[in-house]
Design goal:
The termini are far apart. The chain has one domain: Gcn5-related N-acetyltransferase (GNAT) (Aminopeptidase). By secondary structure, it is an alpha+beta fold. The longest helix is centred in the middle third of the chain and has 17 residues. It has 5 helices and 8 strands. An 8-stranded mixed sheet has the order 1-2-3-4-5-6-8-7, with helices on both faces. It is globular, with a radius of gyration of 16 Å.
Length: 190
């Protein structure tokens, strides 16, 4: 059944171009590389990342995780970047869900222990937000996190994402169901 609404972003908005490298002052957001699989394994072995992302990975799964980001870019359903500080991967940030029809995306992020406490995630989120609005043409970007994940809440607020509400019992973690905060920015927010 045809939509009566023109898509916010035309098909090809992602797949029609190379995934960019995004500069964020002293951080670089770059595509994941095959050689990054060890970093992915280290990340998903970290108790804090496991707690909020509810995943662990083997070597093969880490390689698949990296390859999956290439496929998702080509399919225009997601986009993931390694957050690099100097010459070392400090974390990840992604448009984990992209809806071109609605011009909307949902962000996820994590930071490795050696890079925590330096506003790595909020700086990466601010840079990705600018690119997503100004270059990609998104209209709305959302951050969802467990209400118990206070550091993630601070990241969203520091990057200008307003708290819009709480989604009750929205996500299942290893310790049970969690309420989730919904933060968002739309084009024009300051």
């Amino acid at each position: 059944m045809p939509s009566l609404v023109t898509p916010a972003l035309a098909p090809g908005a992602l797949a029609g171009r190379e995934q960019p490298e995004i500069q964020a002052n002293d951080l670089t957001l770059r595509t994941w590389r095959e050689g990054d699989h060890g970093v992915v394994m280290t990340a998903y072995a970290d108790p804090a990342i496991q707690r909020w992302h509810a995943r662990s990975v083997t070597d093969d799964e880490a390689r698949e995780w990296i390859e999956n980001w290439r496929r998702r870019w080509a399919a225009e359903t997601g986009a993931g970047w390694a957050v690099v500080d100097g010459d070392k991967v400090a974390g990840q940030i992604s448009l984990r869900v992209i809806d071109l029809q609605e011009g909307r995306a949902e962000v996820s992020y994590w930071v490795l222990p050696h890079a925590r406490g330096r506003k790595t995630a909020s700086r990466a989120l601010a840079a990705l937000t600018v690119w997503s609005f100004e270059q990609l043409g998104l209209h709305r970007i959302e951050v969802l996190h467990s209400t118990a994940n206070e550091p993630s809440c601070r990241v969203a607020v520091a990057a200008g994402y307003r708290l819009e509400g709480t989604k009750r019992s929205e996500a299942k973690h290893a310790d049970g169901w969690h309420d989730m905060h919904l933060h968002a920015r739309i084009v024009g927010d300051r």
